[in-house]
Records
---
Amino acid sequence: MAFLARRLGAAVLLLGVLSLLSFVLLAAAPGKPENLLLGPRPSTPETRAAIRAQFHLDDPIHERYLSWLGGALHGDFGTSVYTREPVTSIITERLPVTAGLATYALILTIGVGIPLGLAAAMRRGGRLDQGITLTSLVALAVPPFALSILLLYGFAVTLGWFPVFGAGETAAERIAHLTLPAVALAAGEAAVVVRQMRAAALDLVGQDYLTFARARGLSLPRVWISYALRNTALPVLTVGGLLLAANLTGALFVERAFGLPGLGELLVTAVARKDIPVVQALVLLGGAVVVVVNLLIDLTYLAVDPRVRHGAVAS
Amino acid sequence: MTAVSGTPLFGGRVARLRRTRPGFLTVVSAAVLALMALAAIGGTWIAPYDPAAQDVALGASMPSWAHWAGTDDLGRDVLSRCLAGARSALLWPVIVTLCTCAMSTTLGLLAGYRRGWVDAIMMRVVDLLIALPGMLVLIVLVGVLGGGIGWAVLALAVLFTPGDIRVVRSLTMAQRELAYAEAARTLGLRPTRIMFRHLLPNIAPTVVAGALLSFVAGLVALSGLSFLGIGLPAGTPDWGLMIEENRTLLDLNPWASVIPAALVTIAATAATLLGDRLFERLSDAA
Amino acid sequence: MLLEINGLTIAGPAGTIVDGVGLTVAAGEMAGLVGESGSGKSLTARAAIGLLPKGLRASGSIRVGGVEIVGTAGERVLRGLRGRRVSLLMQDPFSMLNPLRTAGAHIAETMPGRATREEVARRLAEVGIDDPSVAGRYPFQLSGGMRQRVALAAALAGDPELLIADEPTTALDATTQHEILALLARVQADRGMGVLLITHDLRVAFAICDRVSVMYAGRVLEQGPGTSLAQAPAHPYTAGLLRALPSVEYTLEHLTGIPGSVPPAAQVASECAFAARCDHATTRCRASRPPLREIGDGRLTACVHDTLPRLTARDVATGTLPTGSGEPLLVVDDLVKRYGTHTALGGVSLQVAAGETVGLVGESGSGKTTLARSVLGLVTPDQGRIELDGLDITRRRALTRQERARVHRLVQCVFQDPSTSLNPAMTVGATLAEAATRAEPADRLAPGDLLELVGLPPGYATRRPKGLSGGQRQRVAIARALAVRPSLLICDEPVASLDVSVQAHVLELLRGLGRELGTAMLFITHDLAVVRQIAVRTVVLFKGRVVEQGDTATVLDAPAHDYTRRLVAAIP
């Protein structure tokens, strides 16, 4: 329980820091805040004064932070200075694309990464292992945006197998439109899983307890489920947080490269337009996702590893 | 402590097996990186055209005898821009790597060797920085606040350092408990001497491999920022920026974006491969 | 026969490791397989259960309960044999159990059919665990001895006819070791099962095994009943091992190790493997490989000579040890060190006189290493006082620069683990030269002289630690400590990780240095026989307290404290 309390505390602290960071962003951005908030519209001293009043810009900064945070906690992130729409509705409109892309990539990552990692470990040193290890190394190094361009050129432009831009309308179209982006996003993540899985499996093979289990004549399914899967799950889980961060930033590049109207694309555009309320909301949202997923990973740890459960290891 | 006799059964033998002559891929990777480094140094002299020279009348064109890799929409020679772009694409990541390496090695050694409050404070900060969705924060900070490539490089170094500090620190902590390190302390050697003369050589393989990985991460991150139009001013010859500026020309001259994309990929792959192999060889030799 | 091994050869990528081993285990028999590290005994054990590490191949014949398992048998056949016909108990209780599974789960999963709670409790009771709640505990919640008991119960859960026990007590404390061995012997007798006990400890093997095979460089050199082997070894190697074995009963005049080191099996394939290190070696020994031949009484030897080697060392009169001047050099007074709620040292007081060697005996967790580290300044004690040559060194930070430099010259240390005692990145010469810079200019010795002091050729200065054997590394570590001419040398289990034959050399070296240089020593060990050979006085530490101290002879021959008595009784 102490473990969980500590993790919860850290999560709250992290969100606090993130919210502070994204709030301070507005104050620190070059130019006067009212000009930023006005966006591209023509301004008169009157409109500027109105904006100052509307956003309480003359209040002390900590009060403004608290009222912004209060709004954020109720799902109110203000309005976009560019489109004048509520930030929340812009985000909900864009969310499905990114969520679809992330889920698709996650399925690919796990579906490809775990079997390949295991296969490489089982054929250690063989051609299959060398091939998988090398491929994963390359996939690990390739930046998602470069891979996106290469995939686009190869499979969409030259071969014409997949659509070039956009997100598609029907479900089937969606899948077709999202396939290349999901591959571009998943490649690096799958590589991480492959390497981690391979290392975990090799480590397991070297463990005395596995030899001891085999020496007692345990059946194969028993060895696989009680030993191999459970014991390798932990080291693979530890990279979960890393994967998520890669997923978030990767989505940014991939969405832009494929012209997908998702949250990543929204963030990049908002940054370019200095649409601060949108940026703030997205940073906070991204941070919240990272924090929540890391908490989930900790919970899984708690469920799988008795040492953590009984506080024997301070992790 | 009770005696545990008997040696690990196969550690030595397996290690010896792996210690073969440098493989084909290692040589190729090193050669590729060397070539790219040459381009970074002398690319602007070899380049057939001035990378900034425009030929708006020509516009985007497919490869031809005059322009081996074609031109972009402003009629600039893609080949020349790729050669010239090597400099900014590789130089900045090198600076990121040097900064990261210097900071993480010094701080990691200090935290791992000294422990106590130095370590406690440093680890709190490190934990926080690691938990932040780093690239996201970086994009927002540099994108909104401006400040150009210099700030981006600095921010990246700050972003990469915590992870490496953790690695160096845990290795240092493991080494410092070993008998040779305790013997050095018993002899009354100066802490700096113990840290840099005794501990550092034994964690060097990881530091070197980590440096190559930092280089890759820096390369990917910086060209990624350029790809998002953040950092370098528009029009600078740079691989990431070229991909961004020419990606809409896939039908007119795909090479204008495909070649820089391939170059970034190849550079990153070569450095990763080299780091991976170097790490294996160095850790075997120890 | 439960196990019949014939002409077993195991080869890896680097060549042959085990070469033509033959041995048998019958029902109801406790067979021993002894050898130093690298002799191939553990691999032989692994091969016998079909679990050789990847990359190694076995040839020859191994029959388990009549079933041949070399070559033809697939994984299916082996899995049928394992657990029910043959089972394995391994060395390290801390790594043998799956950290994510409970003790009970380990036992239950091995039992044929469904395991009830009562049955698991009964199995635990068989290995001396009467508390059934242990079944629900995880390995990390159990002590080393308990884990080894649980592992034994798990290994026996399938009711095997044959148990292969690979160094089952090596990682345990002396008293626990004693208990586990007794338990193993009892279970073996109760079940009428066959046991193949693999150990590096000659005393253990000779004490509890019906028949013992002595392995060296991948082959068996001698076989026979344990007691007769101990009294009249028929192979010079066995004799050498016995001679090197420190006695717990008296202090030997000379400790004689075996010169040289073990050759790789592949290098000595067609000669006597021991010839290069043997006093009796003749050209016959190198001409061909001597086969194991019978010499009566169920004994076999691979020595070509008919005369048996003599065990001379045992007859020699008691040796003497330097007693020191009586002037106190190190005074430890009421030292306390706590780690959280754990008390490592609970008020320890002891003295070491100049030139005297004091033994510090205790098991893991007794606080002996914490005490050493406190004196060395690697740990700051919570309470109490440490005085060295009249200087209060309890808190190193409180000392002036000059005082600190003086302390570093007064006390040095030799650590336990030879594999980490030297910096792998530095040559031996660089290590010694660096240490010498800390000495008084007048005392400064060159690396070559320091090496000579510890009996190594000066040419070793250019080598790196990787190119040295364990014993040689410990010698260099001793030379490094001596480079500053310390008055007090703390030896923290310096021979615990070494093979017997090497251990004797290092002990003899330390004894000689004590005599010639007049260096006082605080010698930390868990081995009473070692303490008998080196220390005039002995301090017994138990759970952070001194429970007994006095003349080594008195402490060992007439122990006053209950714990010391248990320690003495635990000697095999």
Note: Residues 90-309 of chain A form a domain with the MetI-like fold fold (CATH 1.10.3720.10).
---
Amino acid sequence: MRPPARGAAIALGVLALLGVVAVLGPVAWPVDPDHVFDAPMLVSASPSVAHPLGTDPASRDVLARLIAGARVSLSFGLLAAVVALGLGTLAGLAAALAGPRTDRVIGALIDVGLAVPRLLVLIVLTAALGRLPWAWLAVTMGVTGWFGLARQVRSRARALAAGDFARAARALGAGTRRLALRHVLPNIAGTLSAAAVLAFAHAITLEAALSFIGQGVPIPVASWGGLISDGRAQLWTSPWLALAPTLALVTCVVAAGALADAIERASPWGRVESAP
Amino acid sequence: MRGAPLRRFLAALARGLGVVLLVAVASLVLMHFAPGDPLGTTLEGANVPPDVIAAWRARMGADQPLPLQVGRWLGAAATGDLGYSVSMHMSVARAIRTALPYTALLGLVAIVLGFAGGIALAFAQARARGRALDRWLGGGALAVWAAPEFVVGLVLVELFAVRLGWFPSGGAMDVTLGGDAPAGVVFADRLRHLVLPAVTMALVIAAQVGRHQRVALVEAWREPFIRAARARGLRERALWVHHAWRAALGPTIALAGLSLPLLAGGAFVIERIFNWPGMGSLAFQALADRDPHLALGCVVAGATLVVLGGALADVAQAAFDPRRAT
């Protein structure tokens, strides 16, 4: 295999493994992540046979919470990425193909969206809307994260629409929708998948940042970011609390980043901008 | 074509002004419909007669119809008046003027360190491309890029502030230092406070810059003009620095433009960790105290810098890239 393909295979393997842990983890380790074992005695216990990753300050099993966190964090990233990908593709294609007036409106929207720090927008929104359940927080994350993707889609689609095969398709009577779906979209699939993978990784990291500020996935639902934030006070006394979710998160994001890199390298158009 | 870059910059700036206006109007409209009050949480729980509150609200213009509020805010903002921050007990403009230098100092040091580190990393990787050193450095950069920045910050705090005690864990200065302390001591104290937040931010920036720059360098290295320059007898080092790097600088300059907002509130999380009294902390306080005028000021200040950074990067990119030179 060529190096990009091998890198992509490893990255995909790691992500798939994390997915399997999220799906089958509760079967393999059937411990309730919210169960309090022995509140005064078994608080922040070190790893043992009964609790392979120890217990947290509320005497809950860290491994069970890590698995529950994987379910939440991975679904969170997927949901946010799907929303961002859908909105970004739609807006980008519309801007590039639906005429100059649409282009101006969407272009202004993209500029405005990119001009405000995303974390700030998210914090303002969570402050205004109250604590959101994790799925809605993920949707909000997607809704605030499609601007960079839309700009990429727009510039690539615009270049493609000016190309020979698009002109030929137009001449053969293809409408805007057919042009977008059958001719432009397949040609930007590589860019889109790389951008979607990066959006997935960004959403998980951003949720962790929100958790750190106290605006992430609300308790008692476990997310990797929430677990890291919970464990950071005991970083030296009980390092397993923060270490396990940090490793899980970093592994996941590294794999996603490597996968996006491999897709970009395999595609002939060069790099995808990662949103700031 | 001397005037072209300037004209380009002004055009980008004019567009940017429109963007900032849109951001301000959108935020004002959002603020109007979001729950909360221009008086924030200041009067919450206090036993204040309703007519006094009404009088204050009227004084702040909160009882007027939305279009009028928007118009008034924009009109005042044009003269540099961004409203009054109830939680800070000062004008928003003054609060921003106090916080901005801290953020600018931190951001500037971090951006310089981060770009220098990232570019050095990319050179080391590109020259060792395909070898083990390239893979190890790349893996390290990928891990730093992937870790949430607060994890990077917390690890540095635990290590260098809590364990080793080399640097303070937060704040921008030692408040117990009297006003009569010698300038050298004050300077050293400021520097010690700056190290950890700046290094945290620089690491995050360097990881991203390095990833972009390495790809661009390796790509440029394959271009025919490198072979041509090599045929003219140039040394390896000169080839990398004067030819490959110059061609590979474009994406890095774009990235530098994108990182300019770090100077005005992008480093939200890092400022929180290190309790750094900059724009990020100000924005956080605005939200914690539900102080809408202050929040609005922070958002508009942030958007202005984003736009400025984009315009500067656009011009710089055109000026540096020999292929785009006119």
Note: DSSP finds eleven helices and no strands in chain A.
---
Amino acid sequence: MNLLWVVLLPLIGTLVPLFTERFGRSVCAFSVAILPAWSLALVLMYAGDVFDGQAIRQSIEWIPTMGLDLSFRLDGLSLLFLLLILGIGLLVVLYARYYLSEKDSMGRFYAYLILFMTAMVGIVISNNLIQLWMFWELTSISSFLLISFWSHKSEARKGARMALTVTGAGGLALLAGLLLIGNIVGSYDLDTVLANGDLIRSHSIYPVALILVLLGAFTKSAQFPFHFWLPHAMSAPTPVSAYLHSATMVKAGIFLMARFYPVLAGTDLWFMIVSLTGLTTLLLGAYIALFKHDLKGLLAYSTISHLGLITLLLGLNSDLAAVAAVFHIINHATFKASLFMAAGIIDHESGSRDMRKLNGLWKYMPYTATLAIVAALSMAGVPLLNGFLSKEMFFAETLNQSMLGSLSWIVPLLATLGAAFSVAYSLRFIHDVFFNGEPIDLPKTPKEPPRYMKVPVEILVALCLLVGVFPAYVVGDLLNVASLAVITHDAPTYSLAVWHGFNIPLFMSLAAMVGGATIYYNRRHLFQFQSHFDEADAKHIFEGVVQSIVNASQRMIKTLENGSLQRYISLLLLFTLVMGALPLLDLTQNAGSRPQIPLDGVALTGAFLMILSAIATVIWHRRRFLALIFLSVVGLIVSLVFAQFSAPDLALTQLSVEIVTIILLLLALFFLPQTTQKESSPSRLSRDLLISGLIGCVIGTICFAMLTTPLSTISDFFLANSKTGGGGTNVVNVILVDFRGFDTLGEITVLGIAALGIFKLIAKMRIYMPISDDKGRAWSNDPHPMMLEMVSQSLLPLALLVSVYIFLRGHNVPGGGFIAGLITSVAIIQQYIAHGVKWIKPRIHIDYQWLIAGGILIATATGLGSWIFDKPFLSTWFDHFHLPWIGEFELASAMLFDLGVYLTVVGAVMLILANLGKLTTSERAEIKEND
Amino acid sequence: MEAVYAFCVGILTTCGFFLVLRGRTFTVVIGLTLLSYAVNLFLFASGRLKLDGAAVLGQSTDYGDPLPQALVLTAIVIGFAMTAFVVILAMRSRADQGNDHVDGQIPAQSTKATASHKRNS
């Protein structure tokens, strides 16, 4: 027994139609129905317990460390909605089998439909606010897919977009509201929230939370002023309208209000917002519905009106009204779904939904007509049909309120007026379509639909009748248990009888019927009156608003993002300046208490030289070669700085990287202009100088403040454990290959990726080679100088030996994979410089890409190796051995990891430089494209 | 010494940013390189300055802070890879666009300036 399966079965069912579509339409429809039916059967198995007043709960740990559970709960309200969702869902599956034409993709349709069903089921049985919201959003998305199912139609796309925008925006508001509620209560568990109604209502942010949640509910349930999306959603296939836009999705908002009724309702704020919104929606929907010529348009506005009625009931803050609301949810779902299906049949069999053309269909489809007429009468609230019962309860409740103080008597009047319009449009639906003369140039001759297309309508209409005649037997228990879940304490006494004697609600009903008939009879005058108003098309307004938002954001983007890198950088720097400088203004003293090192002459000279070279780089930056030479001086002094301040590893690295960088820039300079033209205006120069100067001041100040602050570091741990835990005395290297080995692994991966990216950029580059230098002298074709060739050739083994030595000793004294790799690269590059590419090619057969891949692989494999010994990733191992002749030596797995680093560095550096150097030769890299 | 060190970092930052704000790719790359020197020195400074600190265990009890060193070491190598990437991108941009301006096209007023420059020379 598992509540999870109630959701899971339809979810799996989403995939079924995609596989069974090929076996024919009936097989597809049948297979689609199996899993939801199974789910429905599960629900029915639980029904007994629920009727006994239990709520069934189940929760499964999902991400326990974050306190996230999948949790479900089935109580009376959930049960009612599950029956509606799954029951009507199955009828719609059957109906759609006959509704969809051969051209429509049935599998896709059913997949969307069942996805939607899953989402709805999820909403109603979620026991966690966030989980509920996730399913809520899923209904918005799946309904978007369903409305835009006929995506070749413009209005379908626009309607879908509108529905998604409105309900999606409402969904975001709902999320905010739910987060607030969760924050107030301290838990997202629905049970906990429902138990803390007083806490929530008395909290200071209750109004905000309430309004946000109601925004979610009103957008979903098409309440005024968000009602406009629903009529446009009617461009969906009719089974979708019957399912989503009458029975289920628009009821999700109602469900939300009912679900949170115990915690949010009961205050004046709730009363004012909910009941007034409901009343407005009720009247507006009923009035507009009368003037719609489109069958589905009429039904859509009628739906809006009925949703308004339910909202109004929920807003009255009375237990009896809540019962009436729940009752009307059931009744509306049955008669409206059947009416939509009937409208779909009429559309399907006659080719039109326009009531000005559809006339006198009684003669052509008497059977369907009978069903539709019964359903329409139920919508009108005629006795012996279910619509009558809930409408009576509604009238009775409007008499028991004091909404508008001493003006409260207006409410029953308005309710009767709304009901009269409801009668009028129901009459129009019946009279205009089935009687009223002959059809006017319909595309097809109407006929009865296939037998099984009528079955869903028959079932629903039968329910309307059964509930209407024997309300207590048919829905009494269900209504009772569902209402209990809404009002949470004992249900008030109410009587589900057809006849209550002569009372005011009965007279209101009679007045509504007489009034409705009168309105309909005099409809020509009303239509004429209505034609004086310009009908504001919500679509145009909506599209206009969307367009103006798009325009506004485009304008903003154009101002902020005009495509100039210089501008972006200066804006970024200005922002950094403000953020960096502001805190400094509060700092009264920038020197800390740490004792400073006295100056010495050598350091001062070095600093002087570095500053001069940096400034010279800037001054002569337009003469690029010169600037490069000054740059290299800066880099060399930086490496001396590292050496001076006790960081030999850094000094070695900086030195070798410096060489490689300068070679790279020299090579690149060959392909770029040798000089830069003067193009910055003096004002631009001074602006840039100002910005960069100020930033330099800020950074320098921060640096000084940091240098003079006493050090508190976590490095003591590394110093203490380097020898005992990592087996090396060079702490920097042990940090790299052991303590922070995972970082290093990431870093060499980045290095490899950068090198491969560069390779790809080089390989597809069009050569832009100057034939002469900037002074117009042609390139010399001198052979490689012999002295250099000889010396470098003899130096190669030596250099390689040094790099091996640096590599091997790295764990204990300065050195290691990074430095050794750079030294090896420099040695190889030297050969390229001395001998040229042609000489190298037959002598060095190394595929640098494999080197990179191999390096990363070795490093990763070393890390994974520790799994064999049941240790976490990248645990290291080391031990000391003794061999005769050689003596004591150490073996460490970190050495293998460092080998990976070494290989990656060599591969990356060589891949970049060698390919850049080869660019002008016949050996240049090329990528063969397949296309 | 600290003041001089900080001053150098400030100067390198200023020079680096000034060059980064120029309009040609190669100059921007040089600026970035200067900037990466400044950044590396800055990061290194978070371990404070120490003369004659021991680099390896067992030589002395006074060690330089190894953690910033390890971070800067990898930063230098990654910095090289990024410089290489940007400079190759600059080459590619020139090859594909025909000029070496950072925006891929010469802004309108500067072409005028170039023209007048040519006329004068």
Note: DSSP finds four helices and no strands in chain B.
---
Amino acid sequence: MNLLTDIFLAKAAFIGAVFAITLGIAAYSTYFERKIAAFMQDRIGPDRAGPFGILQPLADAVKMFMKEDFIPANSNKWLFIAGPCLSMLTALMTSAVVPFGDTVTVGGVTFDLQGIDVNIGILWVFGIVSLGVYGILIGGWASNNKYSLLGAIRAASQNISYELAMGMAIIAILLFTGSLSTKAIVEGQQNGHWNIFYQPLGFLIFIICAFAECNRTPFDLPECETELIGGYHTEYSSMKLGFYLFAEYINMFISGAVMATLYFGGYDYPGIDFVTAQFGSTVAGFVGMGALIGKALIFVFIFMWVRWTLPRFRYDQLMGLGWSGLIPLSMYNVVVTAFGILIGKPFTAGIVGFLLLIGGMVVYDQLFVKKKIA
Amino acid sequence: MKLSNRTKVMEQGEMTLAERMYLPAIVGGMATTLKHFFSKPVTIRYPEQQRYLGPIFRGHHILKKDSEGAERCTACGLCAVACPAEAISMVAEERKPGEEKLYREEKYAKVYEINMLRCIFCGLCEEACPKEAIFLRHDQMVPVFSSRDEVIYGKDKLVEHMDQRYLRDGWK
């Protein structure tokens, strides 16, 4: 009984820590978003609030809270409030199954650095991410505004389209691991056998879909200012708008963590055996947690880097890329992976499959596509 | 025959394979932004850092004194005539015996006022002045004012102080 209480407390402390880390990183993502944007445009960025502007997220939060919390007269009041809450809820729930580290022992209690190790871990991530679109859809519909509704519809159709390709990309991973548990997927990649080396094409598909799922540029059509004012959050103000924006940054961090888990070995890092031998498995576990968060932050940087480089797609281009580009590609990837596992050489099969794809496209291009007249 | 023979016919044919795949162009674009990420920002943090505006910037007006410390202005009124915004007004006075150290000529400006709301900083007063008395200094701007009675600058704000004389870069 005592042991049970200890494990419960340790889990509660860990979940609280993950919660705090996620929120902190999301808050500072807003700061780094602005800084990175500024650096990429040869500017300095926010530098007035505190040294180097590091208090800027606090100032932004105070601003958000102080603004008038306005609910339009003809909106559906309860759904209008439920929209941002749902967005925030689903954004925070995803991190429950991400394995942040290996087993550690603190104060005589041994527990996993993971919220819950369920055997349907990846399905959980997918389920919650799919629910995430409800926040946007409800918010956009409840605003009773055509722009908001258009943004919400765009968000819904975009997320559904890209979830298909994303699921297919993950099926190839599941073929390797034979398990839906995120922990098992990470354990299958220990000692440098990261899935990215076996699944370069799958990773490419997954990261593109992750951009679309997070509604980030070049797939930020649901909230594009030039066409739809603010998209689904046109009518939102104050902290409700803050929740929507915050949920986006949380989603970025979590999807970075999921990508690190699926393709970059999760909490694996070079020299893990050395650290375990020198300092014990607990220290190694916490270093692994740092490694996972570091990998996730690199992905957050890539998200921002792409945002400040690319313009957004036109809507028909977006749908074309999703349905006739990524889904066939991911099907091809599944077939190649399955073939590789069948003949027992997944690495060779992955590389050969990738080269065959490029070669096939070049040949098709040479034979069937009309050339420019030089 | 075209007008200039420099017309360039643009090809609008099918895109090449690399163009249709987006990815090479995306990688190229990301390389460009990464290059700028590490390059030096061009921002000047204005109130703390100020940029050198050149030796002929037309800023705050100054009524020069000569090397003995006597005011050069003789209140001829040419600056007021030249001023397109009619910002300058003055009252002339005859120099009394014993004031030779104070005023260079026999006549001087008892009151010399510039309305800084009217002034357009064109520098025509400086060009009109036959005695090289009025200049628009390059190193100092007229400060922002918040009420209308701060707008008219009299001799107290315009006449040069001998302990911090104004020197333009070209005069040295």
Note: Chain B has five helices and five strands.
